[in-house]
Write a structure and sequence with these properties.
The chain is built from 24 helices and ten strands. The chain has 634 residues and is α/β, with parallel strands linked by helices. It folds into two domains: 320 residues, ABC transporter transmembrane region fold (Up-down Bundle), CATH 1.20.1560.10; 190 residues, 3-Layer(aba) Sandwich (Rossmann fold), CATH 3.40.50. Strand 7, helix 20 and strand 8 form a beta-alpha-beta unit. The protein is elongated, with a radius of gyration of 37 Å. The structure holds adenosine-5'-diphosphate and magnesium ion. The site of adenosine-5'-diphosphate (ADP) has 13 residues, from helix 14.
Length: 634
């Protein structure tokens, strides 16, 4: 939980953020034709609306300067009939109206193009990035997930992707339209009347200043909102995932307090934004009114003195009003672009994460469909978890050879490094020093998928997907037929339980395996591993949640299926370990004893001590099942 702050990481430099944004844009390259159509649409949209004031001017001219109404008007004027003189002007106005209508229809088509195309470009980018992120996530090494809280990863997958989608979609669209509108309006104003334009530009600086001040004040608040909602997300997610622990340890008050703190900060930041918005809006509106007054005053005076046409003034006023929205939207757009930049940087930081290297050593084995023999060797292996404090070795100078078909039990106190041994066999991590070898070849020479196909795992905490029981068992072998699934379930001593479920093998398991006990989940995981029928089976304390009777049954089933299979049984209980061909006793990352049950008992060392403790506990309590469970409690 305390990792949340750290994982937010150092904010990327402006340059890196822009580079990331351009990389996001490059994803859209495939859709260049959509972008081209969107651009064409934007141009149609902006240029047609820029024509409207000219039409206005034309109409006003016709009404105020009948002599300019064209040849028809002149001809009518010669006849001296007022209505006849008006009618050509009316005809011209009708033509202007028709033209305006055509323009409006044309513009509507343009707007359709720009929105449809640019939005789809943004959504394509979002979609592509989302699937890349997800695929990337599944290729990242364990060490990555040790470093990052789930909430942080989730917010990259959702919020940041949305920011980039917007930033490559409608934000681009509005920005381009605003730029074209501003440039077009200012050019038109200059062409219409230079002096009036200069007057307008004198009023512009305060507006620009207000916009800038607003942007500068609001952007940090938006960033605050981002950060806070990220943390809020993490707190909520951790509490939902860990709801049992939260409730069992009555941690709710502290967690509520933490949530409240973040929620309050989020509230304050949002309120700050609202306050700034409520100030900036009216201030800019006021400036807009002032600007219109200046134009009307100065321009009106000139129209009155005859040095400016009314039509020009009206067209000019229209163009000046076109500047309002681009200015008004600058802060908002800058913020959205800022978010898109930050989002892109966070997304590409994740996409650039180093993947677990696969078979990077020179003699990489090419994919084979052959089963391995199953000889495992740890050669002088030392290992420290990447996020540990470095000095803390989980394994130190660890040497162990497990022969094909051998059943080796690893026993030892909590934290002695047993799970670490399993993690290294799975190549969830690579050793800091030394080598782990399968059939005499360094694990790093094996294609990762190939390696993992050869080894079946049952972990301490087994995750069940919210799928049916059958699909959970078939996870590694989707093609298995019902009879095989049933056989695996029977071997794992879970078949009877499944038969009792409302929909049997089709019963859907909750996200955390809700509805099944820890032991039941463990046996489903065991069935999953057995169905895979791997040459090597690694069971990490996977019978710990079973009662002694069920454990015996599982062990017997394993004995039947274990022939020719290398099995590594990690255990806390002597009862689980004692039947193995060889028992390895670990303490603080090293092997302290090794031998068969009988040998180790005769030796009278750690194992014998452990055995005596656990057996006397059994005898003392009289209840065998309960005793072995207590002994197994970590
Ligand atoms: N993901 C991890 N990150 C950092 N340290 C870890 C991690 N997993 C285990 N450790 C540490 O490595 C040591 C060995 O742990 P582990 O192999 O899980 O022991 P065991 O399975 O025997 O209980 C312990 O000191 C533990 O705190
Ligand atoms: Mg463990």
């Amino acid at each position: 939980m305390q990792q949340a702050g750290r994982a937010q990481g150092v904010p990327p430099s402006r340059r890196d953020a822009w580079r990331a944004y351009l990389r996001a844009m490059a994803i859209a390259k495939r859709h260049w034709w959509r972008m081209a159509l969107a651009f064409a649409g934007m141009m149609i949209d902006s240029l047609t609306i820029l024509l409207v004031p000219l039409l206005l001017r034309w109409a006003v001219d016709i009404l105020t300067k009948p002599e300019a109404a064209g040849a028809a008007g002149d001809a009518a004027g010669l006849l001296g009939f007022a209505p006849a003189r008006l009618s050509p002007a009316g005809g011209q106005l009708a033509r202007i109206a028709l033209f305006s209508l055509a323009l409006a229809v044309f513009r509507a088509a343009g707007i359709y193009l720009e929105i449809a195309m640019q939005e789809s470009v943004g959504n394509w980018v979002g979609r592509d990035i989302r699937s890349r992120l997800f695929q990337k996530l599944l290729r990242l090494p364990f060490e990555f997930f040790d470093r990052r809280p789930t909430g942080d990863i989730m917010s990259r997958l959702t919020k940041d992707v949305d920011a980039v989608r917007d930033g490559t979609g409608f934000v681009v669209l509005i920005t381009v339209v605003n730029l074209v509108m501003t440039a077009g309006s200012v050019t038109a104003m200059l062409l219409l009347d230079t002096t009036l334009t200069l007057v307008v530009l004198l009023v512009a600086p305060p507006v620009v200043l207000i916009t800038l001040a607003y942007t500068r004040a609001v952007n940090p608040l938006y960033q605050e909102v981002e950060a806070r909602s990220g943390t809020l997300h993490t707190v909520a997610q951790e509490n939902i995932s860990g709801i049992r622990v939260v409730k069992a340890f009555t941690r709710a008050p502290q967690e509520i307090e933490k949530f409240e703190r973040e929620n309050q900060a989020l509230f304050t930041a949002n309120l700050g934004i609202a306050r700034l918005n409520s100030l900036a809006g009216p201030a800019l509106d006021l400036m807009g009114v002032l600007l219109s007054l200046v134009i009307l005053g100065f321009g009106g005076y000139r129209v009155a003195t005859g040095s400016l046409d009314l039509g020009v003034l009206m067209a000019f006023t229209s163009y000046a009003s076109f500047l309002y929205w681009p200015l008004r939207q600058t802060g908002w757009l800058a913020d959205l672009i800022g978010k898109a930049l930050a989002g892109a940087a966070r997304i590409f930081e994740l996409l650039d994460e180093r993947e677990q290297p696969m078979g990077e050593l020179p003699r990489a084995v090419t994919s084979t469909s052959q089963r391995v023999r199953g000889r495992l060797e740890f050669r002088d292996v030392s290992f420290a978890y990447p996020d540990g404090d470095g000095a803390e070795y989980a394994l130190r100078g660890f040497n162990l050879v497990i022969h094909p078909g051998e059943r080796v039990a690893i026993i030892g106190a909590t934290g002695s490094g047993k799970t670490t041994v399993a993690n290294l066999i799975a190549r969830f991590y690579d050793p800091s020093a030394g080598q782990v070898l399968l059939d005499g070849r360094d694990l790093r020479e094996w294609p990762l998928e190939e390696l993992r196909r050869q080894v079946g795992f049952v972990f301490q905490d087994n995750f069940l997907f919210s799928l049916s029981v059958r699909d959970n068992i078939c996870l590694g072998r989707p093609d298995a037929d019902p009879a095989q699934v049933r056989e695996a379930a029977e071997a794992a001593q879970i078949a009877a339980t499944i038969d009792r479920l409302p929909h049997g093998y089709d019963a859907v398991v909750g996200e955390r395996g809700i509805g099944l006990s820890g032991g039941e989940r463990q046996r489903i995981a065991l069935a999953r591993a057995l169905l895979l029928d791997p040459p090597i089976l690694v069971l990490d304390d996977s019978t710990a949640s079973l009662d002694a009777h069920t454990e015996n049954a599982v062990q017997a089933a394993l004995d039947r299926r274990a022939a020719g299979r290398t099995v590594v049984i990690i255990a806390q209980r002597v009862a689980t370990a004692m039947r193995a061909d060889r028992i390895v006793v670990m303490d603080k990352g090293v092997i302290v004893e090794e031998g068969t049950h009988a040998e180790l008992l005769a030796r009278g060392g750690v194992y014998a001590q452990l055995y005596r403790e656990q057996m006397s506990l059994r005898a003392g309590q009289g209840d065998q099942e309960e005793a072995s469970r207590v002994a197994g409690v970590r």
